[in-house]
Design brief:
With 175 residues, this protein is of the alpha+beta class. 21% of the residues lie in helices and 47% in strands. It folds into 2 domains: 6-69; 74-174, D-Ala-D-Ala carboxypeptidase, C-terminal domain (Peptidoglycan synthesis regulatory factor (PBP3), Domain 2, Sandwich), CATH 2.60.410. The protein has helices at residues 6-9, 49-66, 161-174, and strands at residues 13-21, 25-34, 37-46, 67-73, 78-85, 91-96, 100-105, 114-119, 123-124, 132-140, 143-152. The relative contact order is 0.13. One of its GO terms (biological process) is proteolysis.
């Protein structure tokens, strides 16, 4: 039995925890999702369950009416390919480790948002898929709105001496 009545009566509410003690009174941590935006609300010290639910409803209404999320990238989105020294591959894809979104007041455009990638410029094999190799910064007017770890999209093993030798010969041949 779920004691969070908002799960049934507020569209998008999917949890989380109700509680009561004499000291803390009626408490609720509620989570809800609407239009791709997840909101977490917390109330402590409410005098009754009715007041607790009313306060949470008010917070959720405010959040969903005043704010929006802008999804920029899904998880594992390839942003670049960077060179790898002494690898069995010349490059490794740089991918997002998680989905990337920013939160704004409703109606605010994100045309002036700037993306800045900082990737280790001196990568050496071996590199494991999922290894952090950089950071994606989302900025507006010099303020950092989001920071996301960037990871290697593939494994890159150390190249054999023969492969490295052939690369050197190929570079001299191209010069």
């Amino acid at each position: 039995m779920n004691t969070n009545k908002l799960v049934k009566f507020y569209p998008g509410v999917d949890g989380l925890k109700t509680g009561f003690t004499r000291e803390a009174m009626y408490c609720l941590t509620a989570t809800a999702e609407k239009n791709g935006m997840r909101v977490i609300t917390v109330i402590m010290g409410a005098p009754s369950p009715k007041e607790r639910n009313a306060q949470i409803t008010s917070m959720l209404d405010y959040a969903f009416s005043q704010y929006q999320t802008h999804k920029l990238y899904d998880r594992d989105h390839i942003l670049a390919d960077v060179e790898v020294n002494k690898g069995d591959k010349d490059t490794v894809p740089v991918v997002t480790s998680e989905s990337v979104s920013i939160l704004t007041k409703k109606g605010i455009k994100i045309d002036d948002v700037v993306e800045r990638l900082e990737v280790n410029s001196n990568l050496h094999a071996p590199i494991k898929q999922g290894e952090v190799i950089g950071t994606l910064f989302i900025e507006r007017e010099g303020e950092i709105l989001s920071e996301t770890p960037l990871i290697a999209g593939d494994d890159v093993y150390e190249a054999s001496w023969w492969k490295l030798f052939k690369r050197v010969i190929a570079k001299f041949g191209a010069a």
